[in-house]
Amino acid sequence: MRGTAGFFLCLLLLVASHCTEVAAQNDQPEPKTPCANWMGGVPGYPGHNGLPGRDGKDGLKGEKGDPGMEGSKGEQGETGPRGWPGPAGPPGFSGQKGSKGEDAFVHRSAFSVGLTDRSPHPNVPIRFSKIFYNEQRHYDTSTGKFICSIPGTYYFAYHLTVYLSDVKVSLYKKDKAVIFTYDQFQNNNVDQASGSVLLHLSSGDEVWLQVYGDGDNNGIYADNVNDSTFMGFLLYPDLDAH
């Protein structure tokens, strides 16, 4: 027995010496377990979950942070529907007065004349020497003819007092009778004969009135209270000529 006890004593001394060397080599030895790697115990059971803590109060609001970097430009969106018209704005200020434009040229040609001789000669132009209007002087009182100076369309008319005999009168253009008027005189009466026509004239064309036919057909009359008149005027000129 003594020999066996001595053997176990030597063995314990060797083990203790070995454990001391191992503990010196570890940087952080586990406390109170110098021989844990040799005689470690069985792991214990996990503990119970602890009670939850109380809700804390909100902390103070922090300071405003610095603005972040600007992001990249996004894609263009689709065009929206057209909005309602807005209210009308106030009237603007009046602009400056423009410069005076050029006057449009107006072509004028007109005459109105009356008879002074009681019985004009037949088969020649009747000379109307009483002037009512002849500003452009296109009617020649010495010949009794209207001379066209502005090519275009003209209106001519005559109103004749008939007395003492019948009247046969015609309107001529370039030596050719255009219209005819005949009025038969009634005894002890004063009658009227008239006619009118539209004519296209070229520059230099002549228009006049003339008693025609043989016999006593020149009963055209005029006095202080009765007139026999002849007139004409330009309706519109030829565009290609002006």
Automatic annotation (TrEMBL):
Signal peptide feature range: 1-24
Domain C1q intervals: 104-241
Entry keyword Phosphoprotein: no
Biased composition (Basic and acidic residues): 54-76
Locations listed in the record: Secreted
Presence of keyword Secreted: yes
Region feature Disordered, mapped onto this chain: 46-101
InterPro entries for the chain: C1q_dom (IPR001073), Collagen (IPR008160), Collagen/C1q_domain (IPR050392), Tumour_necrosis_fac-like_dom (IPR008983)
One CC-aspect GO term: extracellular region
Keywords per UniProt: Collagen, Hydroxylation, Secreted, Signal
Name listed for the protein in its UniProt record: ADIPO protein
Lineage: Eukaryota, Metazoa, Chordata, Craniata, Vertebrata
